Amino acid sequence: MGATGPDEEENNWPPWLKPLLKERFFVQCKLHIDSHKSECNMYCLDCINGPLCSLCLSHHKDHIAIQIRRSSYHDVIRVNEIQKYLDISLVQTYIINSAKIVFLNERPQPRPGKGVTNTCQVCERTLLDSFNFCSLGCKVIGTSKNFIKKPRDLLAKRRLKAIALDSDDTYSHNNHGRYRSTTINKVQSFIPSTPPPTSVNYRTAKRRKGIPHRSPMGGLVIEY
Length: 224
What we know:
Blueprint: H1 6-9, H2 17-22, E1 42-44, E2 51-52, E3 65-67, E4 69-71, E5 74-78, H3 79-82, E6 94-96, E7 99-103, H4 136-142, H5 151-165, E8 167-173, E9 179-185, H6 202-205, E10 213-214, E11 220-221
Antiparallel strand pairs: 1-2, 1-3, 4-5, 5-7, 6-7, 8-9, 10-11
């Protein structure tokens, strides 16, 4: 086998993918500025020459063109269109207007919510457990051999690993003055366990006996 090039090192991405992710869509077409159909929301995978409007498609009749859509000001593409030409496994999908879609690029998220167990390996956006990336762009970055995870992500995984795998030794003293080691697994739940019931009489337990005092006449007085 020969030496691998940059594209082979990054999972042999098709040549149109990275240019697609860098494009700005939903701008007015410079060639058809006077038309009401001049919004650029198409992309030709064969020409890779930038966003196209619907009127531009007349010059790409025999080419593969895909449509870019929008959700909350972010570019998306329908799964049934992109999966024919690209491996989108491990990228989280969403249902918008009854159609399954994927996002082209990451969407900033300040911090994962409380109790989140899975996040995007690149931008740490909250994900379902069966996915590793929130967008096509994050998958391109996250699968690159040069990708290094963020320190915060590494520290979080180390803490979880320490809780799940580490063990600790506790010692008990016996009658001969020797100590016996007992290994206790530190896999823990975040819900505290219920303490075992006791036979303490709480009515009498609340009444602590005080220090006995002798009366000046020599009698013994007991304080309750």
